Amino acid sequence: MKTKILMVCLGNICRSPLAEGILKSKLDSNTYIVESCGTSNYHIGKRPDKRSIDIAKKHGIDITDQKAAQFNTHHFEAYDFIYAMDNSNYQDIIKLARNAKEKDKVTLILNELHPNSNLDVPDPYYDGEQGFEDVYQMLNKACDLIVTKLEKSS
Ligand code: 4NP
């Protein structure tokens, strides 16, 4: 069975689509499934924000085919690892968890990079291109560590 990883932000148009694209680009699709969604219903069915598409493209990753979806409790069963982009997303996901096993699947993504620091991937929605580049860089580093961890445990 493939290992399934879910990236979650608020709108599923800026940060988690980038996280999905970056992690996917580093893993073998025969072994891993990476997807993303948002805690809100704001952008269901929409393509990623153009600024996320452009930053991903600049780094050789195509995320144009993604479509925004909303997180729901079925995702706890369907995924092995759930990464929240910020503390607010984390709390919103944890609120929906029905038991300790579901809660244990959820991690703040930057805790992979800075353990126990509970740092947010800043929401770049109201920023310019530099905000998206900064988000790309921090997600890229976190995804490298996720890959190392997944490959160690497989
Ligand atoms: P994301 O960014 O959570 O990284 O996709 C946002 C995109 C849109 C909104 C908020 C955050 N919004 O309020 O519409």
Structure description:
The protein is an alpha/beta fold and 154 residues long. The protein has a single domain, classed as Rossmann fold (3-Layer(aba) Sandwich). The protein has six helices and four strands; from the N terminus they run βαβααβααβα. It has helices at 15-26, 50-58, 74-78, 87-96, 100-104, 129-153; strands at 3-9, 32-38, 81-84, 106-108. The structure holds 4-nitrophenyl phosphate. The site of 4-nitrophenyl phosphate has 11 residues, from loops. 4-nitrophenyl phosphate binds next to loops.
Largest sheet: 4 strands, parallel
Provide a count of the helices: 6
Terminal CA distance reads 12 Å
The shape, in one word, is globular
Number of domains: 1
Helix content: 40-55%
Name the average pLDDT: 97
Approximately how much beta-strand content do the residues carry? Answer: 5-15%
The total strand number stands at 4
- What assembly state would you assign to the polypeptide chains in this entry? single chain
Q: What's the CATH architecture?
A: 3-Layer(aba) Sandwich
Bound molecules: 4-nitrophenyl phosphate
What letter string, H or E per element, gives the SSE order? EHEHHEHHEH
What is the CATH superfamily label?
Response regulator
Which CATH class is shown? Answer: Alpha Beta
Features:
154 residues; alpha/beta; Rossmann fold; four-stranded parallel β-sheet; 6 helices; 4 strands; binds 4-nitrophenyl phosphate
